[in-house]
Amino acid sequence: MKYIPSIAFEEMSGSAKGVTAAKTRGRKYIRNRGYGGSTRTEFQASVKSVFKQLSQSWKALSNAQILAWNKLAQSQAGRSVLGTSSKISGANLYMRLNYWIVFCGGDALANPPELVGVEAPGEAVISLTTEKFTFELEQVPAAAADLRLVVCASAPQGNGITRAYSKAAVIGGPFAVEAAEIDIKAAYETKNGAPTAAAPKVFMKYFFVNTKTGEKSGEMMAIARL
Q1: What are all long-range contacts of 39-46, with beta carbons under 8 Å and residues at least 24 apart?
Q2: Are residues 135 and 215 in the same domain?
Q3: Is the residue at 136 inside a domain?
Q4: pLDDT in tens for each of the 226 residues of the chain?
Q5: Are 20 and 46 in the same domain?
Q6: Which residues span the domain enclosing 76?
Q7: Which of 151, 223, 155 is closest to 189 using CA atoms?
Q8: pTM of the model
Q9: How many folded domains does the chain comprise?
């Protein structure tokens, strides 16, 4: 159920105490908070485990380190539940950057890194048949040693589905950034099953991650069809 809030809730967003403050078509409202199902995939469980470890390691930082993360966070921006730009905390930034560092096999940084920015990857050649599912970047950045490629894909979708990029989740990887064809068939089918004539479309996203700083590039989108 939705409730129209008083002016005291004018700038609120997010969830707390069983309710969610949100906005649609310029109108603010409060609704009962949704918690979703209890089913968790192996990847979701691993993500949760990493963030739990990072939450504990954040608490072990010195005051000077926490202040340094808070200072760096002042120059960064996040996204609210409504998609608008918002401030993030030092703890948020610590989690965001260190998650990708750990995902790529590195150790979490206690001190904030010097951010350098990461350009989004270019177009990719994606081949999906009953025999193979491959991914290859058309161009590779000149300085790619510290970068890793992350590929996300949705479960097979029917022809009537025109946009399902939000359903794309990480498959395999992270992959080295190089001019070579990557076989993602086994990783994809283990997670999502094989595409069929009834569900031949796979919505995909891919991006780079800097393994030294944890920075993530913008996302590229693509559709693979059986």
Answers
A1: 41/169, 41/191, 43/169, 43/170, 43/191
A2: yes
A3: yes
A4: 434 444 444 444 444 545 555 544 555 544 444 444 444 455 566 777 888 889 899 999 999 999 999 999 988 865 544 445 567 889 999 999 999 999 899 999 999 999 888 999 999 999 999 999 999 999 998 888 999 999 999 999 999 999 899 999 999 889 999 989 999 999 999 999 999 999 999 999 999 999 999 999 999 999 999 9
A5: no
A6: 42-103
A7: 155
A8: 0.74
A9: 3
